[in-house]
Amino acid sequence: MAISQETVEEVLRTANVYDVISEYIDLQKAGSNYKALCPFHSEKTPSFMVSPQKNIFKCFGCGKSGSAVTFLMEYEGISFGEAIIKLAQKYNIQIKYTKDQEEQKEKNDLVKVAEKIKGFYKDQLKRSSEAKEYIRKRGLLPKVVDAFDIGFSPYQIDELLTFCQKEGISHQQLKKIGLITVKEDGTLRDKFAGRIIFPIKDHRGRTVAFGGRTIKDGKQPKYINSPETEIYSKGKILYGLYEGRDFIREKKEVIVVEGYLDLISLHQIGIKNVVATLGTAMTPYHGKLLSKFVKKAVLMFDSDSAGKKAVIKAAKILLPYRIDVFYCPLQNGLDPDDLAKKGYREVERYLSNAQDFLYFLLERIEKTKELKKRKEIIDLYLDILSYLPDKHVQGLYLKELSDKTGIPVDMLKVVERRDYVSEDEDLNVDNLFFNEKIVLKGLLENREEILREFNDFDKITGSPYFMYLLNEILEGGDLKELESIKKLDVPSQPEAVINALYVMHKNWLEQQSEIELSLISSLDDSAIKEIFLKKKSLYTGGNKKK
């Protein structure tokens, strides 16, 4: 679905960076500007500045800067298009699309249906003594039941159909969101009948699917989830991310579990930086989504073979996004739900013993004496190293392996690999600026030659949509727009691309100077000193004296 360039431009003209940022963090007046502690890195002295006049923000500590759209993308962990839509809704700007408007309207209607059904299930839980008794036995408190909108689907479908008739919800809509099936004789079957319901929300808080857990012993399957639908893709949803987003962002760390009750039980005892994969393998989309919030992921999976395979898969997904992967195995058949019932301190004890997964493998290599098994673990270790995007970090881990095994570093080989995810964005490339088109098309046709000449892509200016496309091309994203970019009628020779990049780089330098001059006068002397010391440490190796 393509958001029209007209809508994008109106949002960019209208959205005020102060209005947007002040809804998320406390801003203090500093001359004609505003200052705050940066929400993107830890600091004691405010170095995050907002200029309402220039409609930009900049942190002098970590270097992040940009517009209201940029801030939302970074803070909320959302895509460019989602930020545009959110701001359009805030400022009551009509969202126009370049094509398939009926398709988008249908999806919006299905989300509204899912929200209404969520309310129906919540009401049914209050009416069912059997469901309430199950909730009580599982030890779930009313506040957490309410926070996660937990409900119940009645055994008979009649009540659901009566509710839908009153709300104007059609059987076809119920089928499209995966709630019912139609039997051969034409009768309808509620797939979730007699189950506790866990609404599944996307990272914007919209209900897009449901999970159900049977309350009768022996009934199989124990858990079922909505199928893939027009509004739900299990590879793009992490359960609990919406509810735990602020806690995850604050700690820069996430605990990954596998089920609804695992996550909810941890929330209930105060451990809220948690997401659940709902039994599916972690996907690159999950990795990229989490990378907007965290630097570290703790995988709290079973210690059986299935759990270990899930850890290996997750490590390969998360490491390319520079997320440190720690393993917290659960012994003796425990799951996170069982562990949470032992209390906060016991969970924290487990978490404090979590290991960097690569170091966990190193210990396994040391302890394994059988040659064939030892080789298998070494091969796995080297395979996982190939997912680390930084060569110098690979080198450090190779040195550790060499020290543990006695194998010379030059005999340890790591294959080249880059695995990234595409975004769900689809704006019109024809409306990009001329130089932006040159750069994108040139990189597709002459990538290596251009990268040998220019690599300061984080130091150029461009429209938000261009910067999104550029980042995806550089990181190997599977863009929908690739064919459209290839068809652009612009020069793509390396010389033309390099010239365009240097123009963008010059504009970036001028913009940074202007931003710094306009904002730095509003900083306290202590903040300026702290910024200077940080920059100085980049050249002196931290606190070491030279």
Give a structural overview.
The chain has 23 helices and 16 strands. A hairpin with a 5-residue loop joins strand 4 and strand 5. The chain starts with a helix and ends in a 6-residue tail after the last helix. The radius of gyration is 26 Å and the shape is globular. By secondary structure, it is an alpha+beta fold.
Secondary structure topology:
Layout lengths: L4 H10 L2 H5 L6 E3 L2 E4 L11 E4 L4 E4 L5 E2 L1 H9 L3 H11 L10 H27 L1 H9 L4 H6 L3 E3 L4 H10 L3 H6 L3 E3 L5 E3 L4 E7 L5 E8 L8 E3 L15 H11 L1 E5 L2 H9 L5 E3 L7 H8 L4 E4 L5 H14 L5 E4 L8 H6 L2 H9 L2 E2 H11 L3 H15 L5 H15 L28 H20 L10 H11 L7 H5 L7 H27 L4 H16 L6
Parallel strand pairs: 12-13, 12-14, 14-15
Antiparallel strand pairs: 1-2, 2-3, 3-4, 4-5, 6-9, 7-8, 9-10, 10-11, 15-16
Properties at a glance:
5-stranded antiparallel sheet; disordered C terminus; 49% helix; alpha+beta; 5-stranded mixed sheet; 546 residues
Short description:
This protein is 49% helix and 11% strand.
- β-strand amount: 5-15%
The Cα radius of gyration reads 26 Å
Global morphology: globular
How much is the average pLDDT? Answer: 85
What oligomeric arrangement do these chains adopt?
single chain
Biggest sheet descriptor: 5 strands, antiparallel
What is the tally of beta strands? 16
Overall structural class, as computed from helix and strand content, comes to alpha+beta
Low-confidence stretches: 419-426, 538-546
Strand order of the largest sheet: 1-2-3-4-5
Give the distance, in angstroms, between the N- and C-terminal Cα atoms. Answer: 56 Å
- Please count the helical segments: 23
Helix content: 40-55%
